[in-house]
Amino acid sequence: MKLGRDPIITREDGPRSEVADTWEARIRCHACELSYIAVEMDRDPTADGMAICSACAAESPEMLRAVRKEATMAGEGHLL
Ligand SMILES: [Zn+2]
User: From which domain of life does this come (predicted)?
Assistant: First the structure.
């Protein structure tokens, strides 16, 4: 029997939950290739879950659509 987190609901805070200090660690955005602190980052479901900054995410209708769909499936529904 497997215990642990359900892989379907591991999204949570995206890259934020993967770094030790979200205010110090910097993550590179795959879209604009600039690095931002982790709290500014999200995952881009349209690019295999690569990190994307909030500015690029806001400019990507595909990304927003995919994130909304993902959130709906995860039963969150508090996006945007
Ligand atoms: Zn970016």
Answer: Bacteria
